[in-house]
Design brief:
About 45% of the residues lie in helices and about 15% in strands. It is an alpha/beta fold and about 325 residues long.
Length: about 325
């Protein structure tokens, strides 16, 4: 088609794939962590308390006490490329670039922090992406993770005059591709240990019990993932929930309580894995691999191994490539 001479430039139609994850502060310092926590904990999907009640608590107490402690934790896991979550998500994006043909752009964004979902969606649209697959990297669906990432994307599209077509990656908690990738990764990790674990602990991020009562499927998704993983490994697993916050009742059993109790039950050698996280982050590297080990050993544990998330491993990238290719079907790639 020949355009008239005065026609504005038209970018070649492309397809975009935007990987999204939770988020991270810009640095392991108190000011950056405070800014990050202010955004994260102000999300109504994350803290379901009326804002008139919550904001004075958040601004008056939490943001004046928690950032310093969190910054110290971030400092323990911060790497040369910055936040582990950001650097790994970036690596996942790079590994998938070109996997779906020359007309498909793969990018990444964070729900909280940088690069933001609005910024990357606008960049994709400006680059000619008329169809975009939004891919929240949360295997188990939760309103506070999958839904809020999608919300941010929908909010961005609501401000666009010319919206791209949007699809979203469904939760994949029971997908055979995901379970197989976990099985292969965990079996490889176990084979590399110099001891035989007496138990495998499967730790998921916790959520308040109230979310389950209100109909969020997250707890059920975690339970099914653990059951399918146990069947694939051919051994029982101990399912727990980590990262409790505040006074509300959270999903149980708690990971920290379980790690403290296991040695008293005669289980002194364990491996722990966090299959609900697509990439290692503060909650896995500091909370589990550092503090979890310390707690387990202080209560009598003798052997402890944290097995990494799928990250940008061959198992993880192969799974993501297959899942995304399936969701792109029907689009002219």
């Amino acid at each position: 088609m020949i355009l008239p001479p005065d026609h504005p430039p038209v970018a070649r139609a492309r397809i975009g794939v935007l990987l999204t994850n939770l988020g991270t502060p810009d640095g392991p310092d108190t000011r950056s962590v405070k800014r990050y926590l202010a955004e994260f904990l102000s999300d109504k999907r994350v803290v379901e308390i009326p804002q008139l009640l919550w904001q004075p608590i958040l601004r008056g107490i939490i943001l004046n006490t928690r950032p310093q402690k969190s910054a110290e934790a971030y400092a323990q896991v911060w790497g040369p490329d910055g936040s582990p979550l950001a650097s790994i998500t970036k690596a996942q994006s790079a590994a998938l670039q070109g996997a779906f043909g020359p007309n498909v752009t793969v990018d990444w964004a964070m729900r909280y922090g940088k690069p933001s979902i609005p910024d990357r969606l606008r960049a994709m649209k400006e680059a000619g992406c008329e169809r975009i697959l939004l891919a929240p990297l949360y295997p188990q669906y939760c309103g506070a993770t999958t839904a809020t990432a999608n919300d941010k994307a929908f909010e961005t599209l609501a401000a666009m005059r010319w919206q791209p077509t949007l699809r979203t990656l469904p939760p994949y908690y029971d997908d055979p591709l995901y379970v197989a990738a976990l099985q292969q990764s965990i079996e490889a990790g176990l084979a590399g240990l110099d001891f035989e674990p007496e138990a495998v602990v499967v730790s998921f991020h916790g959520m308040p019990v109230r979310t389950l009562e209100l109909g969020d499927p997250y707890h059920c998704h975690c339970q099914k993932t653990a059951r399918l993983l146990s069947e694939a490994l051919g051994r029982p697993v101990i399912i727990t929930f980590q990262s409790r916050f505040g006074r509300a009742k959270w999903l149980e059993p708690a990971t920290d309580d379980t790690l403290e109790a296991l040695p008293g039950k005669g289980i002194t050698k364990i491996a722990i894995v966090a299959p609900g996280f697509s990439a290692d982050c503060l909650e896995t590297l500091e909370e589990l691999a550092i503090r979890g080990r310390e707690s387990f050993e202080e209560h009598g544990g003798t052997h402890f191994a944290y097995l990494p998330c799928l990250n940008d491993s061959a198992h993880g990238i192969g799974m993501l490539r297959a899942l995304i290719a399936r969701e792109l079907e029907g689009w002219p790639v």
